[in-house]
Amino acid sequence: MTRRFSKTRLPLWGRRIIDAFYQCLLPIIFFQLVRTLLFPSTFDVILLATLAIFYFSTAYGWFN
C-alpha cells in the first residue's frame, strides 16, 4: 500500500530541508543587513526583503 501525500503537507524529507534552511536563514539575514547598510544597492535590498519574507512566512507557518 502506498502512502498518498496531501496537497497541503510536504513529505518528511521536504519539511526537513525547509527546517534546515530556516535555521541557516537568520545568520544570512543579519549578514545581508550589515552588507546592505554598508554598501546599499538595489540587488541587496531585494535580496534582504526576499530572505526576510521567507523567514517570516516559515516562522508563522504560511507554507504549512
Quick summary of this structure?
The chain crosses the membrane at residues 20-39, 45-63. By secondary structure, this protein is mainly α. It is 70% helix and 0% strand.
Protein model, in words:
Helices cover 70% and strands 0% of the residues. With 64 residues, the chain is mainly alpha-helical. It has 2 helices and no strands. It has helices at residues 12-38, 42-59. The protein is elongated. The model has no long low-confidence stretch (mean pLDDT 86). α1 (12-38) packs antiparallel against α2. The two termini are 25 Å apart. It has a domain at 23-64.
Summary keywords:
single chain; 64 residues; mainly alpha; 2 helices; transmembrane; membrane
Query: What percentage of the residues does DSSP assign to strands (E)?
Result: under 5%
Helix/sheet category: mainly alpha
Q: What is the gyration radius calculated from CA atoms?
A: 15 Å
Q: How many helical elements? A: 2
Task: Give the SSE layout.
Blueprint: H1 12-38, H2 42-59
Helix pairs in contact: 1-2
Transmembrane segments: 20-39, 45-63
Keywords: Membrane, Transmembrane, Transmembrane helix
